[in-house]
Amino acid sequence: MQNEPLAFRMRPRNIDEIAGQKEIIGEKTALYRMIKNGHVPSMLLYGEPGIGKTSLAHAIAGTSNLPFIALNATVSGKKDIEGVVAESRITGKVLLFLDEIHRFNKLQQDTLLPHVESGAIVLIGATTENPYHDVNPAIRSRCGEIRQMTRLEPEDLLAVLKRAMSEEERGLGKISIEISEEQLVRIAEGVNGDARKALTVLESVVAASDELDGRLVVEDWLIDNLLGRIGLFGDKKGSHFYNLLSALQKSVRGSDVNAALYYLANLLEIGDLVAVTRRLLVMSYEDIGLANPEIGPHVLAATDAAMRLGMPEARIPLANAVIEMCLASKSNSAYKAFDAAVRAINEGKIGDIPPHLRDTHYAGAADLGHVGYKYPHDTPIGSFGGWVNQSYLPDKVQGAEFYKPILAGDEKKLAGIYEKLKEFRRVK
């Protein structure tokens, strides 16, 4: 057993050994009570790598004493599923843990679903992707529990590390190790909620430590060195990546500079510069908009510079853009107005284009009644430029008002002009 990685050896043997996840499997949850009482529902477990999806499945198997089979949907075929079905016919019920379940293909699904539905197979599916986006509806409908697991808190990870240090059979309890509480806390705080990484760092630190007077002495610099080599930010294009993009936009919209920079840093560490620059450019028009029309060109310049520079220099113009957007006046009135116009069209609020607005660049246009257009530039109005009181909307849509100004930043001036022109139109 000692040849197996520490993280593998220290997997919880039952649900009472699960670290964290109290809202999902704590003693006061319905799921805990069901499993303790011998009923294990099919379920989907969703969350980032290293937060305990596989461990929870093993712990449920250990508590329920059901025959346990683990498969990975990326490499399993129809024969593997048929083997699980055959096992269920012998034992009466099997607990199947299917990792990467979002990769499940239709053939596997068709083979497995009737047996999940009948209760012969209890399915625990694990995925790093949002199950409502990436798991087939047929699978979701047969899972009584869909649970999003979260990163572990440092205190939960500290308990995991201490258990590994004390257990002799599975952990490091037979080895004489000099490691302080503060050093264990440093590991727990430095792995971003990932229990697997915490145990891996602990095992690596112990393996790299020198022996002194019969004890392995753990030094701070070893912990710092190993923590610095661990990626904490997730993968491109996974659910966590899109959650980071969402958090960045919502932080900018909420004018929180520090939160926005934090999420920008996460995204740039992942490395998908194209997706980040695209989202920033969209935000400049979606969330800043008419309140500060200069932001759009500023962000375009920053994103263009970032793409030319590449990382790590790209972080400099992008940080400028994010801070400027956070502290700028904000308005979503323009795209809201456009969406309102689209909604009106889809609701059937349509009509013919007024004759005086139709194309006249051909002989015979006048014969068709395409006449009466008044050229606004011929009628100056103060410092505004040209304006003339004539109808532009179809008759059936007259009076529709899609644009609702927001009195923020530069849009205050635009709102004033908009209201004044409405007054002019009312004067016949």
Automatic annotation (TrEMBL):
InterPro entries in UniProt: AAA+_ATPase, AAA_assoc_2, AAA_ATPase_RarA/MGS1/WRNIP1, ATPase_AAA_core, DNA_pol3_clamp-load_cplx_C, MgsA_C, P-loop_NTPase
UniProt superkingdom: Bacteria
GO terms for MF: ATP binding; ATP hydrolysis activity; DNA binding; enzyme activator activity; single-stranded DNA helicase activity
Residue stretches making up the AAA+ ATPase domain: 39-154
UniProt KW keywords: ATP-binding, Nucleotide-binding
One biological process term in Gene Ontology: DNA synthesis involved in DNA repair
Record-stated family: Belongs to the AAA ATPase family. RarA/MGS1/WRNIP1 subfamily.
Protein name: Replication-associated recombination protein A
Encoding gene per record: rarA
